[in-house]
Each structure stands twice: as C-alpha cells, then as structure tokens.
Amino acid sequence: MKIIPLTEKPSLRRSVDQGTGTQRQAVTDILEQVRTQGDKALHQFTQQFDGVTLEDFRVSESEKQEAVEAVSAVERDILREAIANIRDFHARQREETWITTKPDGSILGQKVTPLDAAGVYVPGGRAAYPSSIMMNVIPAQTAGVERIVMVSPPQKNGKLEPIVLACAVELGVEEIYKVGGAHAVAALAYGTETIAPVDKITGPGNIFVALAKQQVYGTVDIDMIAGPSEVVVLADETGRADYIAADMLSQAEHDPMSSAVLVTTDTRLAEETVREVERQLQSLPKKEIAEKAIDEFSCVYTADTMEEAVAAVNELAAEHLEIHTAAPWEILPKIRHAGAIFLGEASSEPVGDYFAGPNHVLPTNGTARFSSPLLVEDFTKKSSIISYSREALADHGETIAAFARLENLEAHARAVEIRGGKGDLS
Question: Which pathway (predicted)?
C-alpha cells in the first residue's frame, strides 16, 4: 500500500467500471425475456445461473419455519437487538402530511403517501447478509409500505440461507422468492405470473444486478447504483495504527475492488498503519480478496495540515468516513461530503453496518457529493395540495394571467381570467 503526499497533487477521484458493453447487452436481453416470457424465463435463468430447477419460486411457510428452527436463540437475539436499534433510528425520519392556511383563505400543503409496493434484493454469493434485509425492509415498513417483496438467489439445494430467511421472518416479510440476478430485478419491475410488479427496487447486488436496476429505472424507482465498498479514515497523531488498519481491512474484505484510504497529518502514523495492515492481513480468512483491494484500490495520503486533510476527505466523498482525531466533533462541521460519518476511535465502521441504527445503504464512488443514505422518505412520495380562495384569485389573478402570457400560453391566462380575475367571481 503506497504512501502519497497530498503535496504531489494526486487525483483523488476514483472511477469504478460500470459494466462492459457485453454485460449491458446481456442484461438487456435478460430483462426483455422476463418481460415477455414471465415465469418461463425465470425458470430458464435460475437453472442457467444458479444451477437449480424450482417448481415454485415462492418460499413456503414450511421453509420459513425450518429456517427459524435452524437459527439458534442467541442468533435470534442478535437479530432482534439490531432490528430494535434500526427501527428506533428510522422512526425519527418519518414525515407527516402538512397543511397551512394563508390570511386570504387559500390552503396549501404537502401530502405524504407511502409507496404501494417495494422490492428488496438480497444478494447471495460470498456471504449471507441479514443486515441488508434489515436496512432495506425497515425504512420501507416505517414509511408505511404495505407490500414488501424480497428476492434472493437460491443455494444449490434450492433454498435460501437459514439466517437470511429467519431475519426476513423476524421482520414480518411475507412475500419471499428464491430468484436472483438481473432476472429477479426484471420480475420485480415488470411482473410475471408469480411475482406482481413493485414500485421501487432497493438492495445491493453484483454488476448484473446493478445494470438491471439502472435499465429498469423509469419503469420503477431504484435506490442507487452502488459500487464497491469504501472507507476513508481521517487521523492526526492521536490515531492508533492497529485500530485504523483493522477498520480499513473490514472494508477491503468485502470485494477485490473495495477501497480503504487513510488521510493523516502524521507521517509516523502513515508508516505504522501500512505495516499494521500487512500484519493483520496475513491472518484474515478472506486474505485473497482483501489483499487485492489493498494493493490495487487503497493507499495512505499524508497532509501538511488538517485543513489540507479535510479538503482531501471532502473531495473523496467516501461511503464511510471515520474521524480519528483529538477533537473529532470540531472536525464534523467541516465535513461536507460523506455517506456516514463515524466520530472517535470507538466508532468502528462495522458498528454502523450492523447495529447502531443508521442505514448502511450509502452512496459510493463519490456520489456522496450529491446523494444520501437510504431513508424512510425514499419509500414515500409527496403530492402538493393547492386550494385557492376566491379572495386570493381576485388579488392575484391578473398577475398569474400576465405570467402565463410571458410564456406565450394564452389558454393558461384565459383559464384564470374566465374565473373573473380581479373582477366579480360570482
């Protein structure tokens, strides 16, 4: 892992491949086949990509019960405690409909309505991710979404991981399907004989899932196009190399393209952290994945001043930002761009991933410059309310008609004037 002085003016923006032309075309073909052939295409792609032939995609009640029984009481307690924290945090984000009345009698407001249906994609592959279920389902439930559909690729035995299914049951998700990949996204967007379409699709997945979400956007809403995981640590001379290295590796083990960066004002800490990363890496079960992420997508930047370091952090606009300084709360107001901000050495990134309560579905690849974590409001839509009084129209009708004529829209102007404008409205 390289140490790079910021005085060398390195390019800090990272560009992550968003798929090849071949991959995009393959996804387009999959989407079209599911759109036109429905369940037939789902069966074909599940056999092709997962090596499984299923009679029914929907998870049965007996499968749910079997999964719950396979999970220990200790594991269930862990899930329940995390769920409680996440519910509490998201409950504070809930928005309400509001109405205001003006002195002239006109009424204005905003009506907040939950989406009718949301689809949650839960990845399989390298690991089981019950935390992904919580972070996508709980804000939807908090928003008031009545129909929540979960999809996840089946294992070779034709079932879902017990911990994944048990978590969904604990959350009260009733509609669960054993289907993954781009074809699952297509089913959620277009519907099939078995799976009715939804209004929004959220949740992480591989490049094919990401490309599928991108292509169905407009037919449905999506959360974001998520890239590989990222962590940036901002530290001064008080930072501990062992803590920082451990947190960097916690992201590096996610994916060979994950990024772990340290920005520090202390060259000694920079050197110690590089050595500590190498030491801790040797005993990691996922060493091969983490090592590639560290070697190819990670580094340490050294800064002469904290102001220079903060500027670099804001340019990086990381998914996760940890602040390991003597006074982290003094740094916080200076941070403009980050998905989640972890203050102090006890606030390790995995605390946010699993337990604290804030959502771990976060903007990646620099998109924290203009986007936010997954929120309760992402599962709602808003309608403006306008009830103009006769008095208000009498006072402002002439101005409104004149504005319409500024845009050469005569019918707009006449629609106001026919009601009397400033004249008699009776």
Answer: Amino-acid biosynthesis; L-histidine biosynthesis; L-histidine from 5-phospho-alpha-D-ribose 1-diphosphate: step 9/9
pLDDT of residue 125: 61
How does pLDDT run across 282-293, given as a tens digit for each residue?
999 999 999 999
47 annotated to bind ligand? no
The response to whether 320 counts as a known ligand-binding position is: yes
What Cα–Cα distance (Å) separates residue 379 from each residue in 95, 100, 117, 336? 11, 24, 9, 25
- Compute the distance between CA of residue 175 and CA of residue 349 in angstroms, rounded to an integer: 31
In the residue annotation, 90 being an active-site residue is answered as no
Among residues 222, 257, 292, the one where a domain terminates is 222
| 229 annotated ligand-binding residue | yes
- The answer to whether 324 is a known catalytic residue is no
pLDDT number for residue 140: 98
Measured distance CA(361)–CA(132) in Å, rounded: 8
In tens, the pLDDT along 268-278 reads 999 999 999 99
Kindly provide the residue ranges of all beta strands, DSSP E only, lying in 79-170, ordered along the sequence: 98-101, 107-114, 117-121, 147-152
For helices 207-216 and 21-37, give the axis angle rounded to 10 degrees. Answer: 60
Asked whether residue 313 falls in the same domain as residue 166, the answer is no
pLDDT value at residue 370: 95
Pairing relation of β-strands 98-101 and 107-114? antiparallel
Which residue ranges in the chain fall short of pLDDT 50?
422-426
Which one is catalytic: 291, 319, 345, 349? 319
Best CA proximity match to 198, nearest among 206, 188, 207: 188
The C-alpha atoms of residue 47 and residue 65 are separated, in whole angstroms, by 25
What is the CATH number for 338? 3.40.50.1980
74, containing H or E segment: helix 73-91
What's the rounded Cα separation, in Å, for the pair 306 and 351? Answer: 26
85 and 204 co-located in one domain: yes
CB atoms within 10 A of CB 369: 14
Do 31 and 167 lie in one domain? The reply is yes
- Is residue 251 marked as binding? yes
CA 397 – CA 404 distance, rounded (Å): 11
Determine which one of 183, 320, 324, 360 is catalytic: 320
Residue 139 in contact with residue 93, Cβ under 8 Å?
Answer: yes
Contact 23, 211 (CB under 8 A): yes
pLDDT at 63: 96
Task: Determine if residue 412 is labeled as part of a ligand binding site.
Answer: yes
Rounded (5°) CA angle 57-62-64: 75
Question: Chain centroid to CA 97: how far?
Answer: 25
